[in-house]
Design brief:
Elements: H1 2-25, E1 32-39, H2 43-56, E2 59-66, H3 68-76, E3 82-85, H4 91-99, E4 105-119, E5 126-128, H5 129-136, E6 146-149, H6 155-164, E7 174-176, H7 180-189, E8 193-198, H8 199-203, H9 207-210, E9 216-218, E10 220-222, E11 229-230, H10 234-238, E12 245-252, H11 259-268, H12 270-278, E13 282-283, H13 294-303
Parallel strand pairs: 1-2, 1-3, 5-10, 6-7, 6-8
Antiparallel strand pairs: 3-12, 4-8, 4-9, 4-12, 4-13, 10-11
């Protein structure tokens, strides 16, 4: 009888250990393992945010990047549950999730921009969007030799097509690579071309890309029907002066209380918004600042 009791107790102990192991591996809003996908044009800020998030919490987040069109496709077919994009989901995409009985949680966290860059040797540092539109519609424009995109399925390409109100790019004069890094490298080696990249890659270049930073210039943009041109900056983004700004979103399609909720709360919270501010993008919500008056400090020192 004693042996049976000991055996029963041993089995209970093993079951307890297995339960503990299962609980530790269970995903919550602040712990677990997840793979997310991000628009390649905003990869630097997403990497920075998730690095701090993982350092603070028991989370392991694998980051993959892709072009916007592929991201949306992979979201709707269930390959990814969490994505970082420069747009929200449209009605057609939301309908797909509604059929799956999933309500995507969409959280804005920053304002980025599309920027035009040119070789350092260029003499014209202003680009007129009317000239860009004219070029994309096939009209002769000697000022633009060619436009270079990261990917023809990217968010930057989509937004420029929407600006020009065209379905497809012209067969000549438009080129594409696989990343914003490749575009920047190409522009530094070729005069007369204009690269179209995410502002995030300009404000937060990788160590490798820093070696190219003095070989290109960021062009100021004159909006359609406007007389003044503006460069991308936090000030111009905040005051809606820069013509090609865009909001950034976390699209969480998990449908459960998982890491997606924790990540979104972190990005939109105090710490996450400070990271955005430091990156030189525009935070969705301005982080609070703790200001201590100098007079109060001096009084405290006198009392001590």
């Amino acid at each position: 009888m004693l042996k049976k009791c000991n055996l029963f107790g041993f089995l209970i102990f093993i079951f307890f250990l297995a339960s503990c192991k299962e609980d530790k591996s269970k995903e919550t809003i602040l712990k677990g393992n997840v793979t997310v996908v991000t628009d390649e044009s905003i990869l630097p800020i997403v990497e920075d945010e998730l690095l701090i998030f993982q350092d603070r919490y028991k989370a392991n987040v694998k980051i993959e990047s892709n072009a916007e069109a592929e991201i949306v496709r992979d979201l709707t077919n269930g390959k990814y549950k969490i994505a970082f994009m420069s747009r929200s989901l449209n009605k057609e995409e939301l309908d797909v999730f509604e059929q799956k009985k999933i309500i995507p949680r969409i959280t804005p966290f920053a304002t980025d921009a599309i920027v035009f860059i040119a070789n350092k040797k260029t003499t014209d540092t202003v680009v007129d969007l009317e000239s860009v539109i004219s070029f994309l519609k096939g009209n002769a424009d000697s000022k633009i030799k060619g436009l270079v995109f990261d990917n023809l399925n990217s968010s930057t390409a989509r937004q420029i097509k929407e600006l020009a109100k065209i379905e497809d790019f012209p067969s000549e004069g438009v080129y594409s690579f696989k990343s914003n890094e490749e575009v920047i490298k190409f522009i530094t080696e070729n005069e007369g071309m204009m690269g179209v990249v995410g502002y995030n890659w300009i404000t937060q270049p990788t160590p490798e890309m820093e070696t190219y930073s003095d070989k290109y210039v960021v062009l100021s943009i004159k909006g359609v029907g406007k007389t003044k041109s503006y460069s991308p900056s936090q000030f111009n983004l905040a005051n809606n002066l820069y013509p090609l700004s865009r909001d950034l979103y976390i699209v969480n399609c998990q449908g459960t209380a998982g890491l997606g909720m924790g990540i979104a709360s972190f990005f939109a919270g105090e710490v996450g918004q400070r990271i955005v501010l430091k990156s030189e993008l525009l935070p969705y919500k301005t982080p609070s600042r703790k200001i201590i008056v100098r007079e109060a400090i001096e009084k405290k020192e006198q009392n001590n």
